TrEMBL record:
SUPFAM superfamilies per record: B-box zinc-binding domain
Superkingdom to which the source organism belongs: Eukaryota
Gene Ontology molecular function terms on file: zinc ion binding
Stated name of the protein: B box-type domain-containing protein
Pfam families associated with the record: zf-B_box
The entry's keywords: Metal-binding, Zinc, Zinc-finger
Keyword Zinc-finger assigned: yes
Native organism: Dreissena polymorpha (Zebra mussel)
Residue ranges of every copy of the B box-type domain listed in the record: 20-60, 72-106
Lineage per the UniProt record: Eukaryota, Metazoa, Spiralia, Lophotrochozoa, Mollusca
Length: 106
């Protein structure tokens, strides 16, 4: 499977910013903190670096040292976290799990 970095996709990233993702924003990560084991965009890394001055930050120049993405986590339903996204709802143009289909997409 070819990574989105190579494909050039505009909205699916191999590495999402941890802080942005927690606030439902889809932002590509530009940095990785080895101590926190988290990814950060260029804006959020500034706040991180202000708070944690001694943490080792890796930029995309060192992307080979970043961990592999956890595709398994990306394939899980946000509402039903133990369920995998297995169905595409054409009415809502989104991936859903079978529980979502039963309750919300009939």
């Amino acid at each position: 499977m070819e990574s989105s970095i190579n494909r050039g996709c505009d909205f699916i990233f191999d590495f999402n910013c941890f802080t942005c993702q927690e606030t439902d924003r889809n932002t590509e990560a530009d940095f990785y903190c080895e101590e926190c084991s988290k990814f950060y965009c260029s804006k959020c890394v500034e706040y991180h670096n202000y708070l944690y001055k001694k943490h080792a930050i890796l930029s995309k120049e060192n992307i080979s040292l970043w961990p592999e993405t956890d595709v398994v986590e990306q394939d899980k339903c946000k509402e039903h976290q133990k369920e995998k996204l297995t169905i595409f709802c054409e009415d809502h143009s989104e991936l859903i799990c079978h529980v979502c289909q039963f309750h919300n997409h009939q």
